[in-house]
Amino acid sequence: MARFTPHTDDDVREMLDAIGVETLDDLFADVSPKFQGELDLPPALSEYEALRDVDRLAKENDTGLPIFLGAGAYDRIVPSTVGAVISRGEFLTSYTPYQPEISQGTLQSIFEFQSIVSELTGLEVSNASVYDGANAVAEAALMTARLTKRDPRVAVSAGLNPRYREVIETYRVEVVELPFEDGTTDFSEVPDGVSGVFVQSPNFFGVVEDIEAASGAAHAAGALCVAVCDPISLAVLEAPGNLGADVAVGEAQPLGMPLLFGGPYAGYMATDQKSVRQLPGRICGETVDKDGKLAYVLTLRGREQDIRRAKANSNICTNQALTALAATVYTALMGPEGLREVAESSVSKAHYLAERLQASGFRLRYPEAPFLWEFVVELPDVKKANEALLKAGMVGGLDLGDGGMLVAVTEKRTKEELDAFVGVVANGG
Amino acid sequence: MARFTPHTDDDVREMLDAIGVETLDDLFADVSPKFQGELDLPPALSEYEALRDVDRLAKENDTGLPIFLGAGAYDRIVPSTVGAVISRGEFLTSYTPYQPEISQGTLQSIFEFQSIVSELTGLEVSNASVYDGANAVAEAALMTARLTKRDPRVAVSAGLNPRYREVIETYRVEVVELPFEDGTTDFSEVPDGVSGVFVQSPNFFGVVEDIEAASGAAHAAGALCVAVCDPISLAVLEAPGNLGADVAVGEAQPLGMPLLFGGPYAGYMATDQKSVRQLPGRICGETVDKDGKLAYVLTLRGREQDIRRAKANSNICTNQALTALAATVYTALMGPEGLREVAESSVSKAHYLAERLQASGFRLRYPEAPFLWEFVVELPDVKKANEALLKAGMVGGLDLGDGGMLVAVTEKRTKEELDAFVGVVANGG
Amino acid sequence: MVDNLIRTKGREGRRGYTLPKNDVDGTSLEKILPKAALRKEKPRLAEVDEPTVVRHYTNLSRQNWGIDTNFYPLGSCTMKHNPRANEVAANNPGFAGLHPLQPEAQAQGALQVMHELQGFLAEVSGLPAVSLQPLAGAQGELTSILMVKKFFEDSGDHGRTTVLVPSTAHGTNPATASMADFKAKEIGLDEHGCVDVDELRELVDETTAALMITNPNTCGVYERNIKEIAQVLHEAGAFLYMDGANMNANLGRMRPAEAGVDVMHFNLHKTFSTPHGGGGPGCGAIACSETLAPFRPDPAVEKDGETYSFVRPAQSIGRVAGFHGNFGQMLRAWNYIKMHGPDLRDVTDMAVLNANYVRARLGGTYQIPYDELCKHEVVVQPPKGKKALDIAKGLIDHGYHPPTIYFPLVVKEAMLIEPTETESKETLDDFIGAMLELAETTSEELEEAPTHAPTRRLDEARAARQLKARW
Amino acid sequence: MVDNLIRTKGREGRRGYTLPKNDVDGTSLEKILPKAALRKEKPRLAEVDEPTVVRHYTNLSRQNWGIDTNFYPLGSCTMKHNPRANEVAANNPGFAGLHPLQPEAQAQGALQVMHELQGFLAEVSGLPAVSLQPLAGAQGELTSILMVKKFFEDSGDHGRTTVLVPSTAHGTNPATASMADFKAKEIGLDEHGCVDVDELRELVDETTAALMITNPNTCGVYERNIKEIAQVLHEAGAFLYMDGANMNANLGRMRPAEAGVDVMHFNLHKTFSTPHGGGGPGCGAIACSETLAPFRPDPAVEKDGETYSFVRPAQSIGRVAGFHGNFGQMLRAWNYIKMHGPDLRDVTDMAVLNANYVRARLGGTYQIPYDELCKHEVVVQPPKGKKALDIAKGLIDHGYHPPTIYFPLVVKEAMLIEPTETESKETLDDFIGAMLELAETTSEELEEAPTHAPTRRLDEARAARQLKARW
């Protein structure tokens, strides 16, 4: 018998009797074609044995080392409190808050998440999270088409994370490419008829882009400007909403989510009030109950697939409530000053590393471009360098395949680790 | 400023004003002698740095290996659910349930723990846990003196865990020694005037003792019989209460507590109804509230130090509520059949190992004595064997210092591990 | 009216977390960037201490019900027990600390988990190829339909413009079809609540790309003609997609491939016990035939000798996620399946037993629109004159999370009850008792419910009318 | 009247956990033991499934308040925030999986933690020697007094029969003295609520072994004559023991050694934030002078070069625990102290600030028997005609855990309020508001309280009269 079913033989007997059938097989009389065999799966393990396997396979991964990989997922500090809160059974084992009377915990936390996103982006409304950063970007592309009533066709540069671009394309949105030179995008010539212009800042190569230029160009072309921002950067950089962006999206992973080989993370999306009806996904709003008590509820449901079906903005229904909660708790712990400190410490350390590398004779690919905590360094053999780094107990940067290594430095890295990195690379690693 | 204090400078100022003093120093005007310096402690670390140190030191311990050590603490399976339940903030961060209206969670769990102990021991009442097995033994020794109105003087044999005996002696109880031969205690001659006779079963060397003989002898001498039992063994062995024991005590660690280098664990104590007023520590009882609703409360408080002060049964106040809860959850998950299976699997594996060792030419110290999951094997060089075992990735048994190794085998050990143990030892390890 | 938001609990200058001191003398932002690029006003975020954070969110959680606290028979959501062993697995630092872009050689343990899980899902579905990448059930649907789309595009068959969707379908199905640039066309039901095969034969033609079927359907009824349906589609060159939301009714009893299904999605957070987390994250892995396998998202995991690697399927639709998918949920589902092995069939058996027991006991008092064998869930209607909404809110006062209501749309005042296999007969008996009692409760009384919940009924219209979605 | 015990939720044959299959063919119990030794009736334990266990204990927890849910100003208990970082530390498998009898060479990490913690406690107390072994505060007291006892016994000074205990002392103090075979003799207070030095001079003689002092005392008042007290005792050849329950008022502001204390205990679960867990486990580490160091329990940890080892102090009183003490609590306290370093003084400063703020704001409405500077806690008395018990229960309805009541015994209707340093001014203001409101509430109304808690007031007499302490 399976592990988590309470049924004793007597239970089964009594229930079959109440139903009026003889055997469990009878409950499947209407099933055709029936599967008659036994599933060819490994024999059932006890919890203890299964978790021993988890331990064994975990050791097959290289973890616990200083990580210099970024490119969309960052090795940042996750406070212990985050895990403690999100593992509370009431958060962990509840469903989408369709019954608000017994779901105020989830609902208020979503409301707080939306508020944080609005504050960071400088835009008026936010939804209750989308799957991840890449999907937030793709949903934003579709949203620009709905809002401009144009075909989904967006202008992006090489500065947009290529994985985000791939998801845009999967979502059947046409992509036209903007020129990208010396680490930044040239927005001077936005092609006609595009529904949206994307600007990622800091961009894939870590460089801060000119959102104001992007939004100016987009608006001149009758298109919308979508800014793609690392939420940590918004603690120190001007909010995209204040720079003319119509939509801001991004990946919330840096806000308290472990790397976990790529997920679950959470996307975020924000826009201005007048565009709210074109936002996909859930929105949580404030209201009152019968006694006048303040409470929260999912609202503007008319946009959603369960009401509008084929005419919905998106098929998104399940959201990332638990990871959004992680971001909410993380942000509460950090506060505006903590977020700023995370950003500043990362900037300081990344620039220290870049300087040390330059002092050791390596060239930055974009030496003039202003970067935050990620940069491209040119190395004679990136693959070899990464192998040497691993041997020295470090996970190197992303091999761009063209002689460049995209290096990310977070607040977690110590001077000792940065110096060791330089040492390995300088010794021909 | 310390890590967990919310006070801003403004808060401090406003509060000092309300108090009517100028500075924080003024709050300590009455303190003499004042400590004027700075505490010579290492500089404050952030949470992240402190936990990195924890990781670093954890690696200095040899863990994650098959363990053949027992001698009072056992490497048993702890279901994941146990940790999840006891880490709930409401259990973790509450105090002794002095305010029953808002402490029914802790109170009912204590009531359930008492019930489990009563069921396993076959005795009528149990307290809400004492510090650990050793202290339960020592408290029982004192209890026999109060109940018999004799001086605290108890008869024990070498079969009693020597650490338990040491704690008895620390508690200023006189110990007289019973003969111990071929692995069991000879109860035929209990010295006059002792207040208690102790029988540990299975005893320190793993052998099942004759509790009935012990209680018969104790009662004949006007003393009380205290049985010391591993709670897992009580799933398969006759309850001490049914064999004449007046008090049963022991270590609850095998019921779902991690080894954690020796603690926190939890002791248990049970006795018959007529002796309840001589039990030390907390007792939780059933009652009703003002509306007639069933509820639980700490009761018979008149025995305790906060009421009786110098005349209390013991100075015990803080109990082991959280570890008792672990035992309660563990026992609920296992049920009587699960406990039996733990016991039977351990017995089966221990005997397999003992047979393989004998087949390899090693002698058991007590070849005729019936043991459960722990036994003494004679080896040419125990120290060398343990070193070889560690080298082979195993933690060997307890070196008794006289050519004997006390080997414990739990349900966690696999055939592969047992065979590997024999292999190392047989190869002159 | 005061709110209780975290922001109200702070004061300027409070900090909830201490970071390590920056131990290098790198540069500052002012030196890197022009002033215009820098933030001028600090975001109005909470400034609170750690104790306040813990207390705030602990108390928020206590406003919630979950499977851990209450019976939660929410139809079509499979609110089964979430084993804590899965959480232990997902928190293992050897996985939690793994960066998604670490070279494959550094992540062999993670790749093995994914490869094994692919195999498990292939075995359960009977379909040979799997992608774990979709991040939720709805995205699994979309991935499946995009694969169908690309199949026809790559075949040069540009006339396949329609996807058929039964009237019982989840709202995501038609929305998915639209997102993939198909026209969704609704198809009706026969007297059993199943897809009407005769209507199907009429509707299917050379413009049909696929039918999206849910089996058992959202009335909890097994689509008994599924094999015939598949034949009709296949003869017309179209595909049968199966919405696997209800796979908890099929494990070891029915394999979609054998019924003719070409592509399907799983909800790991339903069938395989990964926690719902208040609405996510999930994982919407898909399985498909050899024909559709080349169209799977990038990447899939392959094994060569003892080495695991990522590969891009030849005609891949591309990526649907930034990285490899919700790996944490894969790890949980993998662990769950390993704890069951072939006993997965018992999961389905007990889920179906529980649902039929509820059906048998509620029948007579509640109306059962399709009163024959149901599978893992059952749709019922309140006694005449009673509203599903009122019964639902009444259940809250009895300590039960309400079933799904007003869905499926084809049943008036529908209440879709899915007990799942992890609930005991006693729990069902108590729930049934409450349902029967509510059937006798006056509508006036019911309209007041809930009275014992953290809030009473909400003014939902106000939330939309006076939208306030941030502090 | 039905109970809700776990046993009522089971049915014979249910199982909540699956064990690995036994993979050896060892023997069976029947072959080893005579039938009489084997259990005849299976214990009447719950037979339940895992989902039921999770739901049962989750819901039980929700009947509890903790620091995580409510302000908990329980005097003399130091209910400060329990950082989750400590829990992460204690759950590290590199410690959790360590057997206490593994040879020292296999446990160097654990021994280093213990050695460093010994050093930290020595620094905080100013006393050179530490034992971490006592398992709770009460056992720390007993250990200290047993050390005093053995000192005199080993010195051949058998006339030391008395231990002096102030009337304000915790009940554990006189109980401890008795357990160590001393006669406890009470000593009175001066007008500040402090030990009466004149009376002390009269009482102390060659039969005096020690005075047990709590500083600040249980009225929250600093024992301003402590140095003189120590001198009086030392001149008579007796020791000064300090109950360290209130060390949260002293960190970095006062070191017991400098006041003449010879031996003291700490409550790691009070001062150093290890969780109280509903009443334990704790850790009652002790610190002492060089004179008493040889009497410490076995073992202490020493460092020789880079190697840590256990040693038995030369004249040790023996063991007070089965193994080395509650190592998990040591790990937490060590982690906590490392996160503070010399900033520990801020902990004390804010704790004392909070308590004095409450004192200042409640004064006037509540009576403050010793209305001068208090330390980390303050004792107040309700307005005339009101009972401490009623105010306490009224606080529950306001969402506050009551303070300690009817203790210290020397103050009638005492309410001992200890806010701790981890509470914000806003929380204190709200609590003070509730206290002031309750002062105005009629006694009739108060007697009904609590009405918003999981239960109303209990019939405590019935529990004792009709003792039922098991299912």
UniProtKB/TrEMBL annotation, chains A, B:
<comment type="function">
    <text>The glycine cleavage system catalyzes the degradation of glycine. The P protein binds the alpha-amino group of glycine through its pyridoxal phosphate cofactor; CO(2) is released and the remaining methylamine moiety is then transferred to the lipoamide cofactor of the H protein.</text>
</comment>
<dbReference type="GO" id="GO:0019464">
    <property type="term" value="P:glycine decarboxylation via glycine cleavage system"/>
</dbReference>
<comment type="subunit">
    <text>The glycine cleavage system is composed of four proteins: P, T, L and H. In this organism, the P 'protein' is a heterodimer of two subunits.</text>
</comment>
<dbReference type="Pfam" id="PF02347">
    <property type="entry name" value="GDC-P"/>
</dbReference>
<dbReference type="InterPro" id="IPR015422">
    <property type="entry name" value="PyrdxlP-dep_Trfase_small"/>
</dbReference>
<dbReference type="GO" id="GO:0009116">
    <property type="term" value="P:nucleoside metabolic process"/>
</dbReference>
<comment type="similarity">
    <text>Belongs to the GcvP family. N-terminal subunit subfamily.</text>
</comment>
<feature type="domain" description="Glycine cleavage system P-protein N-terminal">
    <location>
        <begin position="3"/>
        <end position="422"/>
    </location>
</feature>
<protein>
    <recommendedName>
        <fullName>Probable glycine dehydrogenase (decarboxylating) subunit 1</fullName>
        <ecNumber>1.4.4.2</ecNumber>
    </recommendedName>
</protein>
<dbReference type="GO" id="GO:0004375">
    <property type="term" value="F:glycine dehydrogenase (decarboxylating) activity"/>
</dbReference>
<dbReference type="InterPro" id="IPR023010">
    <property type="entry name" value="GcvPA"/>
</dbReference>
<dbReference type="InterPro" id="IPR020581">
    <property type="entry name" value="GDC_P"/>
</dbReference>
<dbReference type="InterPro" id="IPR049315">
    <property type="entry name" value="GDC-P_N"/>
</dbReference>
<keyword id="KW-0560">Oxidoreductase</keyword>
<dbReference type="InterPro" id="IPR015424">
    <property type="entry name" value="PyrdxlP-dep_Trfase"/>
</dbReference>
<dbReference type="InterPro" id="IPR015421">
    <property type="entry name" value="PyrdxlP-dep_Trfase_major"/>
</dbReference>
Automatic annotation (TrEMBL), chains C, D:
<dbReference type="InterPro" id="IPR015422">
    <property type="entry name" value="PyrdxlP-dep_Trfase_small"/>
</dbReference>
<comment type="function">
    <text>The glycine cleavage system catalyzes the degradation of glycine. The P protein binds the alpha-amino group of glycine through its pyridoxal phosphate cofactor; CO(2) is released and the remaining methylamine moiety is then transferred to the lipoamide cofactor of the H protein.</text>
</comment>
<dbReference type="GO" id="GO:0030170">
    <property type="term" value="F:pyridoxal phosphate binding"/>
</dbReference>
<dbReference type="InterPro" id="IPR020581">
    <property type="entry name" value="GDC_P"/>
</dbReference>
<dbReference type="InterPro" id="IPR015424">
    <property type="entry name" value="PyrdxlP-dep_Trfase"/>
</dbReference>
<dbReference type="Pfam" id="PF21478">
    <property type="entry name" value="GcvP2_C"/>
</dbReference>
<feature type="domain" description="Glycine dehydrogenase C-terminal">
    <location>
        <begin position="348"/>
        <end position="443"/>
    </location>
</feature>
<dbReference type="InterPro" id="IPR049316">
    <property type="entry name" value="GDC-P_C"/>
</dbReference>
<dbReference type="GO" id="GO:0019464">
    <property type="term" value="P:glycine decarboxylation via glycine cleavage system"/>
</dbReference>
<dbReference type="Pfam" id="PF00266">
    <property type="entry name" value="Aminotran_5"/>
</dbReference>
<dbReference type="GO" id="GO:0005960">
    <property type="term" value="C:glycine cleavage complex"/>
</dbReference>
<dbReference type="InterPro" id="IPR015421">
    <property type="entry name" value="PyrdxlP-dep_Trfase_major"/>
</dbReference>
<dbReference type="GO" id="GO:0016594">
    <property type="term" value="F:glycine binding"/>
</dbReference>
<dbReference type="GO" id="GO:0004375">
    <property type="term" value="F:glycine dehydrogenase (decarboxylating) activity"/>
</dbReference>
<protein>
    <recommendedName>
        <fullName>glycine dehydrogenase (aminomethyl-transferring)</fullName>
        <ecNumber>1.4.4.2</ecNumber>
    </recommendedName>
</protein>
<keyword id="KW-0032">Aminotransferase</keyword>
<keyword id="KW-0808">Transferase</keyword>
<dbReference type="InterPro" id="IPR000192">
    <property type="entry name" value="Aminotrans_V_dom"/>
</dbReference>
<feature type="domain" description="Aminotransferase class V">
    <location>
        <begin position="145"/>
        <end position="277"/>
    </location>
</feature>
<dbReference type="GO" id="GO:0005829">
    <property type="term" value="C:cytosol"/>
</dbReference>
<keyword id="KW-0663">Pyridoxal phosphate</keyword>
<keyword id="KW-0560">Oxidoreductase</keyword>
